Amino acid sequence: MYRMMVADYDSPSYFVATAAVKLGFFKQEGVDVEFIAEYGAKHGPERLREGDIHFFGGPAFAATRAFPAWKGVKLVAALAQHSYWFMGVRKDIDIRRGDINALKGLRISSSFAFPRTALRHMLIQAGIDVDHNEVRIVESLPSKSESHSLDGLRALQENLADGFWGNGMRLALAEKAGIAKLHLDLRRGDGPPGSRHYNFAALTVTDALVEKQPEVVAAAVRAIVATQKALRADPMLSKQVGDELFPGEEADMIPILVGRDAPFYDATITPEAVDGLNKFAMANGLLDQPLAYEQIVTRQFEHLW
């Protein structure tokens, strides 16, 4: 039995990996995989290093926390294309969508290190002096469950922040509650130049698994591709997974979010994506120098994309 964990299992971008297990696409490839319904941003990369899990779905740069400079680990498929983080702001704030300078003086909440790294980087790239609190980045309130989908909404409701940074589910729930509005969507062109290439959702495995069980990794890539194709054709398939994993409101929301993001469900990892990832990693101390494509992505399975 193999084990899969994702950084945040209510994220529409990582959801492809979740659905690949829950909808039986791994099983169709002859590989038994257990989905670990925990918040993998806490310790997923470390559990991958320790061999406690075999597949990790999350930010393309995430594994560098446990595998510096991608030594011992590789990306084998994109779960979705481009940076997938959103910013929502309180609905009553008079601010034009996409105007990053208008964020000066506001408090923006973000949970855990992966998204906070991208938020800080984006603000700096936009010329915001975060070190002197032109924009204050604050931590979200502790979540009461492994799902953090209400973090953004709670931050606004409890006046911890004026806006929040997170995945599409966080934004959708806060919008539905009538409290927040969309301010930035990096994937669709908001943010500083190049920001849609900071990151992408990827399936990460160890070099040891690639070397010792390449047929299992190939099956995993095929399962991801099949899942992407199925969700693009019928986003309502995601409801089956949502009903099992999420409370009712989130379960109802996931097909809408999957339908919105489905055009980005493509397993291809382009040189452009890796170039953007290198720049992001160097700017944030994850790399000292850019790595070649083959040092980050295994080309052994690219024909399966």
CATH topology of the largest domain: D-Maltodextrin-Binding Protein, domain 2
Overall number of domains:
2
Total helical elements: 12
Mind summarizing the main beta sheet?
5 strands, mixed
The low-confidence runs, each spanning 5 or more residues with pLDDT under 50, are none
What is the number of strand segments?
Answer: 10
- Give the C-alpha Rg: 18 Å
Report the end-to-end length measured between terminal Cα atoms: 24 Å
Under the CATH scheme, which architecture of the largest domain would be assigned? 3-Layer(aba) Sandwich
Spell out the CATH superfamily of the largest domain: Periplasmic binding protein-like II
Strand order of the largest sheet: 2-1-3-10-4
Q: Could you tell me the strand content as a percent range?
A: 15-25%
Fraction of residues in helix: 25-40%
- Helices and strands, in order, run as EHHEHEEEEHEHEHEEHHHHHH
Give a nutshell description of this structure.
Helix content is 37%, strand content 16%. It is of the alpha/beta class. The chain folds into two domains: 2-82 and 199-304, 3-Layer(aba) Sandwich (D-Maltodextrin-Binding Protein, domain 2), CATH 3.40.190.10; 86-192, Periplasmic binding protein-like II (D-Maltodextrin-Binding Protein, domain 2, 3-Layer(aba) Sandwich).
Can you put this structure into words, describing what you see?
Helix content is about 35%, strand content about 15%. With about 300 residues, it is of the alpha/beta class. It has 2 domains: about 1-80 and about 200-305, Periplasmic binding protein-like II (D-Maltodextrin-Binding Protein, domain 2, 3-Layer(aba) Sandwich), CATH 3.40.190; about 85-190, Periplasmic binding protein-like II (D-Maltodextrin-Binding Protein, domain 2, 3-Layer(aba) Sandwich). The protein has a 5-stranded mixed beta sheet with strand order 2-1-3-10-4, with helices on both faces. Helix 9 (about 240-245) runs antiparallel to helix 10. The longest helix has 20 residues, at about 215-235. The protein is globular and about 55 Å long. The model has no long low-confidence stretch (mean pLDDT about 95).
